[in-house]
């Protein structure tokens, strides 16, 4: 739907915590999108597990790669992502927060969907 040449794009549907080896084998990656489920009890603890993913970025990214870090929990602010990235993947720097589409409008921008770009 977005016009990508599917012959040059790969989509991997893996449980990241059980498939580090498989995921790393296909890398390194030019862009990594981190978009965990917000409301999946028992399978993803946002503040703990998000940092586990960030710690592994160095093993997965190509030189000059980018990360699009997303979180849709109203309980964390954009600073959670910025500070966690600085702690766990200090080779990356915050570039910008992307604007949300109208469907994700919220009375409190700090509680709404957060999509941040890092390079």
Can you lay out the helices and strands and say which pair or pack?
Blueprint: H1 20-25, E1 29-34, H2 46-55, H3 57-60, E2 61-71, H4 78-88, E3 94-97, E4 114-118
Parallel strand pairs: 1-2
Antiparallel strand pairs: 2-4, 3-4
Structure in words:
It is a single chain. A four-stranded mixed beta sheet has the order 1-2-4-3. The model has no long low-confidence stretch (mean pLDDT 88). Helix 2 runs parallel beside helix 4. It has helices at residues 20-25, 46-55, 57-60, 78-88, and strands at 29-34, 61-71, 94-97, 114-118. The two termini are 26 Å apart. It is 26% helix and 22% strand. It has a single domain (20-99, 109-118), classed as Vaccinia Virus protein VP39 (Rossmann fold, 3-Layer(aba) Sandwich), CATH 3.40.50. Pfam families: Methyltrans_SAM. One of its GO terms (molecular function) is methyltransferase activity. One of its GO terms (biological process) is methylation.
Report a brief summary of the structure.
By secondary structure, the chain is α+β, with helices and mostly antiparallel strands. The chain has helices at residues 20-25, 46-55, 57-60, 78-88; strands at 29-34, 61-71, 94-97, 114-118. The radius of gyration is 15 Å and the shape is globular.
């Amino acid at each position: 739907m977005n016009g990508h040449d599917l012959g040059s794009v790969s989509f991997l549907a893996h449980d990241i915590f059980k498939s580090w080896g498989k995921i790393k084998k296909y890398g390194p990656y030019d862009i990594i999108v981190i978009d965990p489920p917000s409301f999946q009890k028992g399978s993803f603890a946002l503040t703990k597990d998000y940092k586990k993913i960030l710690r592994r970025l160095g093993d997965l990214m190509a030189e000059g790669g980018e990360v699009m870090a997303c979180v849709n929990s109203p309980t964390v602010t954009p600073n959670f992502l910025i500070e966690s990235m600085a702690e766990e993947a200090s080779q990356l720097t915050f570039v910008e927060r992307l604007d949300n589409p109208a469907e994700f409008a919220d009375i409190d921008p700090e509680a709404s969907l957060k999509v941040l770009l890092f390079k």
